[in-house]
Design a protein that fits this description.
Blueprint: E1 4-8, H1 11-22, E2 38-40, E3 47-51, H2 56-61, E4 67-71, H3 72-78, E5 84-89, E6 95-102, E7 112-116, H4 119-129, E8 133-137, H5 144-147, E9 153-158, H6 162-166, E10 169-178, E11 180-185, H7 186-191, H8 193-214
Parallel strand pairs: 1-3, 1-4, 7-8, 7-9
Antiparallel strand pairs: 2-3, 4-11, 5-11, 6-9, 6-10
The protein binds adenosine monophosphate.
Length: 216
């Protein structure tokens, strides 16, 4: 039975299409060159839908997509009690969710002004730390907030750390490790068990062999 697979444009699509292709799943057109948002797979009767990254969990939770590929950051930001299962770590898009602030400046006392796109992750982190914060929601380019005096600290994704350095910031605490995950709708797990199982076992094989090649 064909699956509906939700992906998003950008990093995930670029890194994920080769993995899907190694499992025999290829969109009938190049999603990067097409304005279409729904693609048929060349074989297997699957459908690939392209959504905004933050919406992948929504499409999977509501069963519009059977499976989705999304960053752990997006899943954590989406929230607790998620209506889907996380089945596989695809070991791509590896990075960390971190706090960061101006290089060499100690964190001020009192209520900390924290800017982030990831307000749920940030709120939960500082609650656990027992630190009172004033959250400032931004949509991106968080690095600029401390520079302009909007916030004392930011919470953002860090890969090489170059973006922080370029903006006079330094990484402080790691909140969690992030990578790209395969998620599946709870009902599809039952109604399309064989197709889901087959995709998971093929993808696991590809991920394992990529992993082995990387560590050689
Ligand atoms: P870097 O300068 O290598 O530390 O990269 C940091 C910037 O790249 C961050 O502002 C993120 O928005 C973005 N980034 C890096 N890795 C990822 C990832 N795996 N997923 C999403 N965004 C990422």
């Amino acid at each position: 039975m064909g699956l509906v697979i939700a992906l998003n444009k950008g990093r995930i699509l670029k890194e994920c299409l080769p993995l899907l292709s190694a499992c025999g799943i290829e969109p009938d057109e190049d999603p990067d060159k097409s304005r279409k948002l729904v693609f048929a797979s060349r074989t297997g009767g699957h459908k690939i839908i392209i959504t905004r990254s933050a919406d992948v969990p929504t499409y999977v939770e509501h069963g519009v997509a059977d499976v989705g590929v999304t960053g752990k950051d997006t899943m954590l930001e989406y929230g607790e009690g998620m209506g889907f299962y996380e089945l596989l770590d695809l070991k791509i898009g590896q990075c960390r969710m971190m706090t960061a602030g101006p290089k060499g400046l100690p964190e001020p006392g009192g209520v900390l002004r924290v800017a982030s796109k990831f307000t749920n992750i940030t709120r939960r982190y500082y609650q656990k730390e027992g630190r009172q914060v004033a959250l400032i929601k931004l949509s991106g380019a968080m690095e600029i907030a401390p520079l302009l005096g909007l916030a004392d600290t930011i919470v953002d994704i860090v890969d090489t750390g170059n973006t922080l350095i370029a903006n006079g910031l330094e990484a402080r605490a790691t909140i969690c490790d992030i990578s790209t995950r395969l998620i599946v709708n709870r009902a599809s797990m039952k109604t399309k068990f064989e197709s889901v199982q087959s995709l998971v076992s093929q993808l696991s094989g590809v991920v394992a062999s990529n992993d082995a090649a990387r560590s050689e």
